[in-house]
Design brief:
three-stranded antiparallel beta sheet; Chemokine_b/g/d; alpha+beta; Chemokine interleukin-8-like domain-containing protein; 38% helix; rod-shaped
């Protein structure tokens, strides 16, 4: 194959690749709301208002956390290893 023919084939491949690549959509920036830090202690008054929870896995910038939903104070990010957390989780599971 001659050099000019190789160059033509290469140019055609670049054009085809360019057409295909332009149709590929890049993901848009997704902002996540997650716990980036946790508390090991929260006031008992707030603990008494907890109505539900979710478990959050660590996936940067998010940290491993238990997110408690309270009646009046919204969401609270807590350390899953805090001493009082397993007891509260059991209480909530019994209520369900």
């Amino acid at each position: 194959m001659s050099d000019s023919r190789k160059l033509a084939v290469l140019a055609a491949l670049f054009v085809i690749f360019g057409c295909v690549a332009s149709d590929i959509r890049r993901p848009t920036k997704v902002t996540t709301r997650c716990c980036e830090s946790v508390s090991s202690m929260i006031p008992k008054k707030i603990r008494d208002e907890i109505i539900s929870y979710t478990h959050q896995n660590a996936l940067g910038p998010c940290v491993h956390a238990i997110i408690f939903q309270t009646k009046n104070n919204g969401k609270v990010c807590t350390d899953p290893n805090a001493r009082w957390v397993p007891k509260k989780l059991k209480e909530l599971q019994k209520q369900s």
